[in-house]
Amino acid sequence: MRMQKKSVSFVIPCYRSENTLGGVVDEIIETMKDSDEYIYEIVLVNDGSPDNTWGKIGELADKHSDIVTGINFSKNFGQHAALMAGLNAAQGDYVVCLDDDGQTPANEVYKLLNALRDGADAVYARYAHKQHNGFRNFGTAMNEWMAHVMLGKPKDLFVSSYFAVKRFVVEEMIKYESSYPYVIGLVLRTTGNVVNVDVNHRKREVGESGYTFSKLMKLWINGFTAFSIKPLRIATLAGGILSVLGFLFGVYTVILKFVYPNSSQFKGYYALMSALVFIGGMILLMLGMVGEYVGRLYISQNKNPQYVIRETTRDDKE
Asked: Could you tell me the pTM of the whole model?
């Protein structure tokens, strides 16, 4: 008896990729064309790209109308919002997410699919040698640390933009409707059965990474606040420690005043100002952290959308 083929959805967030996207799609088609196990589709999400990326997506959708679907955002919402749109559109039993620049090797996708077939719920590509620049590698390292500390990611688990998940994981992820999606957090809160497979990481042939410092900061803050209240607990702990230290220092000062009534060390204006500035800065930092949570709650309550779709290539077919 012949087994029914599994379906695979490839989801690709696209930004400034008019010159690289065609190569990525061609590689997926070449890799999957002779598969006896899988049928597939490709979902391309244009994240408000200022170049002709949407035009390129339209060309690919016309050329491969039975495989490629394009989604066009009304403006730039960010990579994680684009992933969420792709996950909502994907129909596959397995969903594979990868980059639009060709650095994530589509021809090694069977490593990810085999891990899912063998029992994993989610699988992330792990790179022995990353070909990003130093700034991007620093951002990745910070993201790894944040996911470990705040989200409980196992220390030996490497997370990347090249990953695959099963259908039930996708169904759980798309239930999240808040304005601040963070895909890694959504995967980790859904399942602990997450593994790594080793793949090669290619050098970027065209253009440069779209991640700027401000985008990386936004991503880190999102990770800190989206799925964890640990920052608030850290703020509470820091406030308690500072209060105790302040009380002990006050007791110490009173004792010294009685023991050395004529000492000039109690005229420490600069020491006092330093302490006030430090404590004031800590208070403002903690208030800002609380404000970030409250602000996000306010925005979410006002139904601020994760993304807005202007059009899709499916619209032309209806």
From this structure: 0.74
